[in-house]
């Protein structure tokens, strides 16, 4: 897929183009049985940085340490990530292990510890195997390269079945700015936070506070609009590093090409969010729920999330059963005021309900809309002009299989 | 099971003892393919009545008509119920059909239409097959009997695998007062409302406003503390009829034996709620989550519901995987303030976490606690003296199977 918008260019799928001045690595260190489990992403020079973090009250050491660090100085030069162990609910030892993970990385890269962010994902409540982790970080620091983006993308996965990356280029001040984004998702994914793990590296020159503001706003409309299973994780975060090596003038909201950058950033975030939803644990389909005709974006988002999170809607999509009553029921318990007798509902291009009542639709045509890779549900409230989209996946036998024995 | 509390006696399982002055019937009218689908419960004399109804904005005609009726006059003499068709999202025709269902019943029983309540459960958005329904009501009115409680209990089921009934007796003013309760549940069960269908008949003499208050309070602690799948239905209701034929002095909160009646009523409601949770769609186990050490009952309830609603906790219980980290994560996203570093967690009698961290527990012993019919999860916040219990079930392959093709 090669998409050329008026403002930005999306690089073809699978193109792992790191922005100028970034190197990455990923390898198997022995935290997981077989698959890669340690990833490292490093900038040549200090990068403006921004982050959003889980709103779960139970937060892993990596979340609290990164958040504290970015508050005191919004710059980073390296992100080290491990999968297989979340280092959450591990108390003081977990906090000390997280600090050691950062210190070890800093020493190997000859950086101050303050410039290293960390992320962990995997089983909750088990002590981190520090020897394996440190050996892995050492090896990763030795194998950093400009071609290492895919290895990094692989190293952060847990039950994900595929890597999730995006590369976008945009011209700012006639300079080519590149954004590379990578994410992992799968389970414990629910939109009430900065969700799952996502990392964006860019060579844009951008003001850190403008970057943080952009990240927050974009997260609400992308990562926070997906759900896999309604469970909010203890380790979720999105981190961005912008090292300025594209040499554009510093981006702030007053920059004449701010919108171009913001659009490219939004596209990259949305793309990763959708990939996470599509690869939800056990999922066979991406479900896009578009709510329109709402009185505000907030109310449209609330309804879209309620539908995409409904176990009954998700199982009906899995079984390709055009059970639109469940969609209207989920609108009804969303907590958002609306008029049930005005609601229109479409499955793909087939309208199944008008003014809150069923139409005599063609059952086979409706079913065929639910047998596609990407299922679109559209709900028109006919109350106003606002809209929003939420992303999720179907609920399948495999979700149950994967999670009935995740730990054992 | 014969339980004798200090105040009330629970009649053995399967004893369908209707209170004095009540008759019931249930039969197959052709709305569903094979199973019974029309039920009728009638009191000889007008009964004080109370009801609680779904908080879903999308509400079936039966819900709105009953609510309006009870507000204008809290007395009823008959409840007619059909399963197989929810008569929800059916617009004006649905409202007219619901009224005709009441009128037909009233005429057959020679009652004013105002004294008949109705309930429908089943598929949403399909027109009610009125001919079959009216024929069924006619037959039911002809077969009413004091032994008809079990037939009625069968007639209200949808994907339920068993009937849910309870019979309790309590002495008030030296008179024997009997409560008979019956419920259906299975799917679209979530505790933010008066949930699913439940009906209680009693021969107690009780003031209607005291009855309504008791029902509201009891519902919050019983029916509203269960979840099967997080989906709030359009047709949920609990209705109570108290016909006074036990001849006790009118019960109000000032009656010296009010507490005895309230305890018996609470027990009956809790019993039905637990039976609904245990028979959740696809469920193999009842899950009881007890939260203690909370600063208030409200916060304990919030946390207990968050845990019992977690898809990840539910699948781990299904797979008997002692994945306590998911329990703590669900406490963390409950929205209730607490101190993660003080939380203790037990699976049955095995403590698996202390002060928010994992213990080196015996994996086999913990697993065995998850292989029982009723799985108990206890969370101690160690912050105060309040507690609450929520009920749910495991999430299984069969939940997905049942709901992937419910309608087709």
TrEMBL record, chains A, B:
Belongs to the ArgJ family. The keyword Secreted does not apply. Its main location: cytoplasm. Keywords: Acyltransferase, Amino-acid biosynthesis, Arginine biosynthesis, Autocatalytic cleavage, Cytoplasm, Multifunctional enzyme, Transferase. Substrate binds at residues 158, 184, 195, 281, 403, 408. The record marks 121-122 as: Involved in the stabilization of negative charge on the oxyanion by the formation of the oxyanion hole. The active site is at 195 (nucleophile). GO terms for molecular function: L-glutamate N-acetyltransferase activity, acting on acetyl-L-ornithine as donor. Catalyzes two activities which are involved in the cyclic version of arginine biosynthesis: the synthesis of N-acetylglutamate from glutamate and acetyl-CoA as the acetyl donor, and of ornithine by transacetylation between N(2)-acetylornithine and glutamate. Pfam families: ArgJ (PF01960). Pathway: Amino-acid biosynthesis; L-arginine biosynthesis; N(2)-acetyl-L-ornithine from L-glutamate: step 1/4; Amino-acid biosynthesis; L-arginine biosynthesis; L-ornithine and N-acetyl-L-glutamate from L-glutamate and N(2)-acetyl-L-ornithine (cyclic): step 1/1. It comes from the Bacteria. Heterotetramer of two alpha and two beta chains. This is Arginine biosynthesis bifunctional protein ArgJ. It is an enzyme of class 2 (transferase). It is found in: Cytoplasm. Its EC number is 2.3.1.35, 2.3.1.1. It comes from Tumebacillus lipolyticus. It catalyses: L-glutamate + acetyl-CoA = N-acetyl-L-glutamate + CoA + H(+); N(2)-acetyl-L-ornithine + L-glutamate = N-acetyl-L-glutamate + L-ornithine. The record marks 194-195 as: Cleavage.
């Amino acid at each position: 897929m090669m998409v050329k918008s008026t403002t930005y260019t999306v690089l073809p799928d699978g193109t792992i183009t790191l922005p100028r001045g970034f190197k990455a690595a990923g390898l198997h260190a022995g935290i997981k049985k077989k698959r890669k489990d340690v990833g490292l992403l490093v900038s040549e020079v200090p990068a403006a940085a921004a982050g959003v973090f889980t709103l779960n009250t139970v937060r892993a050491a990596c979340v609290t340490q990164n958040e504290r660090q970015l508050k005191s100085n919004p710059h980073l030069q390296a992100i080290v990530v491990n999968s297989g162990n979340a280092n959450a609910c591990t108390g003081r030892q977990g906090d000390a292990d997280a600090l050691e993970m950062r210190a070890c990385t800093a020493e190997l890269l000859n950086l101050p510890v303050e410039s290293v962010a960390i992320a962990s994902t995997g089983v909750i409540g088990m002590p981190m195997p520090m020897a394996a982790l440190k050996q892995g970080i050492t090896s990763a620091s030795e194998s950093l390269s400009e071609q290492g983006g895919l290895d990094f993308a692989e190293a952060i996965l847990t039950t994900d079945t595929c890597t999730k990356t995006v590369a976008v280029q945009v011209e700012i001040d006639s300079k080519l700015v590149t954004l590379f984004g990578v994410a992992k998702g799968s389970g414990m994914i629910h939109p009430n936070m900065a969700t799952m793990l996502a990392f964006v590296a860019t060579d844009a020159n951008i003001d850190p506070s403008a970057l943080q503001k952009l990240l927050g706003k974009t997260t609400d409309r992308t990562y926070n609009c997906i759900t896999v299973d309604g469970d909010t994780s203890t380790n979720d975060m999105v981190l961005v590093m912008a090292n300025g090596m594209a040499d554009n003038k510093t981006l702030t909201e007053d920059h004449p090409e701010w919108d171009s950058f913001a659009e490219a950033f939004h596209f990259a975030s949305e793309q990763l969010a959708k990939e996470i939803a599509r690869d939800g644990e056990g999922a066979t389909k991406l479900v896009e729920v578009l709510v329109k005709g709402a009185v505000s974006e907030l109310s449209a988002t609330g309804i879209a999330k309620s539908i995409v999170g409904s176990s009954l809607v998700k199982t009906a999509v899995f079984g390709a059963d055009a059970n639109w009553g469940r969609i209207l029921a989920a609108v009804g318990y969303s907590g958002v005021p609306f008029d049930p007798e005005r609601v229109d509902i479409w499955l793909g291009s087939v309208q199944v309900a008008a003014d809150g009542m069923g139409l005599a639709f063609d059952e086979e045509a409706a079913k065929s809309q639910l047998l596609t890779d990407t299922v679109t549900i559209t709900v028109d409230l006919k109350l106003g002009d606002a809209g929003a989209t939420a992303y999720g996946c179907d609920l399948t036998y495999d979700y149950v299989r994967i999670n009935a024995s995740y730990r054992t």
